[in-house]
Amino acid sequence: MPLDPKPADIPKIPGALRLYKVSSVITGVFLLLLCVEVFLKFVLQLEIEVGGPNGIIALVARDSVTAVNLSTGILIVHGWLYVLYLFSDFQLWSLMRWSFPKFLLIALGGIIPTLSFFLEVRVAREVNAFLATHAAASSAAPAEARP
């Protein structure tokens, strides 16, 4: 049986939803960049070099990077953004009091390419529907209480 959010937590939900939506999109974009990087590195045997002798940004043979390795940078940045994504997922999940499998499903959005974009829309729709229902119920409650 799903639980409703605690009344004291409801004002925190819009901020948690904003953080989730932003982190979801940014993490999804970096995951797609990471997929491109993995394809370049392991299929085409290329890496992305920044500021080397071949120009500002260049594709060079794998393991021959002499300047900044953008491929490794994308990997590291995505890893840290995924930590932020998990934090925002946990925050929203705990405020909404959803089931643990739902937390795991949302967490998969940061490791399955394009899933974060679909989940972001679905989760935002669900949370906004709850907030709209709650706002309608709270605005109707004082009117009903009047004599």
From TrEMBL:
InterPro entries: DUF3817_TM. It is a multi-pass membrane protein. Its main location: membrane. The keyword DNA damage does not apply. GO terms for cellular component: plasma membrane. The chain crosses the membrane at residues 20-44, 65-87, 99-119. Keywords: Cell membrane, Membrane, Transmembrane, Transmembrane helix. It is found in: Cell membrane. It comes from the Bacteria. Residues 17-125 form the DUF3817 domain. This is DUF3817 domain-containing protein. It comes from Cryobacterium cheniae.
